[in-house]
Amino acid sequence: MPTVDAPAADAVPTADTSGATDAAGAADANAPATMPPATATDAAPALLTEPQPLVAPHEGDPLAGLYGLRLPPDVPFQGLADLAAALGVGLALAALLAPLVLRLTRPRPAAPDLDSAIAALADQPDDIRIPALLNLAARDAPRAAARFRADLYRPGGLPPAAEIERALREDR
Hints:
Blueprint: H1 78-105, H2 114-120, H3 126-140, H4 142-149, H5 161-171
Helix pairs in contact: 3-4, 3-5, 4-5
């Protein structure tokens, strides 16, 4: 005696393309739930030949309905192409990082020593020479700069250039 297979519990209803109806035009009770047949006014693409499911196959997992990954066929000399791609990425990264590395590793110019800085200021007028010598004193001889600090902001409080030079040379 033949047995009738019941539809599986996880079966997905699909669009009916067979037109399984009884004589009265009602749908077969044992047929799965289906979508109505597409009409000419529907906006469905004409290339769609497979029946569309009414619900997602696995509602809890949205990735389950995606198609599998399709890779191109093996290509001759694929290793050479991979090597060229890696070389290109490496060169691009090197081109981006080279200015930063060069800037961070360039040699810094050494500050001139005190005697050459004083000699460079020797031919300057006193309006430029005295503040520059006081800056040198603040940088290289803080005790000498402290000696002049109290009088700097009083009228006529700027010391003569020779006195600042002497304090710089003594305080080294």
